[in-house]
C-alpha cells in the first residue's frame, strides 16, 4: 500500500510538473495566457462491492492531493457488515482523507453533485463504479465536473503455454 501511494504520488507530481502557467504579450497592451488552478473540492467515489480495491482510492485521492485540491471527500458503499471495508478506511487514513461517507451508488453521486443537509456539493466527481454510478455521473455532468465515464473493468489475457502463469495472474 505504501508503495502504491508512493508510485501514484510520484507519477501525479510528474504530470503536474508538465502543466505550467503561460503568459504571452501578443501586442503592446495585449497579454494572453492561462493559469492552472486546482478545483476547490473533489469527491472520490471508491467502489467496494464484493472485492474492495484499495488502489481505486489511491488513484482517485492522490492526484487530487497533488493538484492542490483543498477539500477531498470520499464515498464508499458499505459491505455486508454495513460498514466501509477496513482496508479502504486504512488506505484513506494513510492519505490523510478526513471527510469520508459510508454511502454508494447513484445516491452518493447525487449527494456530491447537489449537496444534502450534511454534505456540501463538490466541484468535481471522480472514480469508477457500476452502470448505475456511471449513469448518475452522466446525469449530473454540468452541475459539477467529471473525470470520465468508466465502468467496471473486465480483463482477458490471451497467452500460450510459454507464458508465465504468475505474470498472467498479476495482469
In short:
The protein is α/β, with parallel strands linked by helices and 171 residues long. Helix content is 39%, strand content 18%. The protein contains 6 helices and 7 strands.
Description:
The protein is an alpha/beta fold and 171 residues long. Helices cover 39% and strands 18% of the residues. It has 6 helices and 7 strands. It has a 5-stranded parallel β-sheet with strand order 5-4-3-6-7, sandwiched between helices. Helix 1 (2-18) runs parallel beside helix 2 (54-67), helix 2 (54-67) packs parallel to helix 3 and helix 4 packs parallel to helix 5. The longest helix is centred in the first third of the chain and has 17 residues, at 2-18. 27% of the residues are buried.
